[in-house]
Amino acid sequence: MLDPVKAGDIAPDPISADLAGGVLTVDLGALCDNWRTMRAASGAAECSAVVKANAYGTGQGPAVKALRAAGCRTFFVAHPHEAFLARAAAPDATVYVLNGLPPGAGRRLASAGVQPVLGSLHELAEWRREAGDAPAALHIDTGMERLGLTAREAAGAAAQGVGQISLVMSHFVASEEPDNSLNDRQIARFTELSALFPGVRKSLANSSGIWLPQAPHFDLTRPGYGLYGGNPTPNLHPARPNPMRPVVRLEARILQLRDIAPDDTVGYNARWRASGQRRIATLSAGYADGVLRSASVRNTGAPQTHTRPHTGGAALVAGVLCPFAGNISMDLLAVDVTGVPRDAVQAGDMVTLIGDGLNVDEVAARCGTIGYETLTSLGQRYARHYVGAA
Fold this sequence. Notes:
Helix content is 25%, strand content 21%. By secondary structure, the chain is of the alpha/beta class. It folds into two domains: 42-228, TIM Barrel; 248-387, Beta Barrel (Lyase, Ornithine Decarboxylase, Chain A, domain 1). It is elongated. It starts with 21 loop residues before the first strand and ends with a strand. Belongs to the alanine racemase family.
C-alpha cells in the first residue's frame, strides 16, 4: 500500500530555480521605462497599457502592479477573467475588455467595474439592457474586418443614442509599416466616424501607431508589444535602433553534453545529420516551454514547410552563438556547441535563449514568426524571477 502524499512532498510554487529546466527573468524596471518612453511619444494623449495574454507572457499581476506604480491608469485585456485579475492588481484603474461582451456577462462586468469594448449592435443593445448606465467602449471597424461596428452601424448607433460611452476606438491594420497607404485611410476614416460621438475620448494607436509620422494619438494610446521590449519601429527609414529596453531574459539548463561522429543524426525523425565530429548539448526546454517547433534546424530529410523564410533557432553558449540541431521535442532541444571551447561549457550550465544579442525580434525571425508569438508562448515551467521596480 502506497503511503499518502504529504504536503511537504509536493513541489513548491513558485518553481525554484535549482529544480527548473530554465529561468525566465522579467525586468519590471525596463517594462516601466518602456511605458514612460511610450507616454512621452504619445504627446498630449494618455498612455495606457495592453496586458492581455498574461501581459504578453511576462505575468499579468506583477506587470499591472508595476505599471500602476509607474503611473499607468488604464489597462486593456482580451478576456473578462483577465480584466478581473487586472482590477485586483490595480483596483482604481480603468480596465477595458477588447474582445467585447460575452452573452449574459453584462451585469457581472458592470458590477466589477469592467468596461467591455462593444463591437456589434447586438452587444451594444445587451450592455444597455443588462448594465444600465454603466460605461463601456465602442469599437468601430476601419479596415481590419474583424471586430467592430461598420461605418453604417456606427452612424445608426450615434443617431439613436448609445448610452454612456467612455471611449471610441479602432485598430490599425499595418501600423508597423509606416509607408503603407492603409494607415492614412484608417486615420481619415476613424477621424470621420469618431466625430459622430462628440465629447467621447478616442483611441487608435497601438505600439507602432504611436511612432507613425502622422502622430495619430487622439486622446488615448494603447501600447502592447513595445512595452515588453519588442521593436515598435522595425520598418522606419532610415533605420533606427529599437527605442525599447529588453524586458525578458530566458535561460535553459544543459542536461548533457556528448560528442557524436560524422553522419550521426540528432532528434526525432533524424532530420539533422552531423557533417563531421560535432559536440551536442541537450537543453531542458522544448515546445512545451514555448520554444517553437518551427525553430528546429534540419539538414536532411523532408524540407522545412513554413510560410516565412528563417534560419532556425540558436542559443548563446559561453557567449558563442550556437545553432539548434534537429527537431525540437516537447521537453528537450539539442544545440551544436562544437564552436565553444570545451573547457567553457559543462552540464548544468545555463545558456541564453532570449537575451543579449538574441533579442525577442531576432529569436522570432529565426523561427519564421513574430515576437508577439515568441513572448506569448513562454511556458509555465520556468522559474520566474522579477527584477527592477517602477
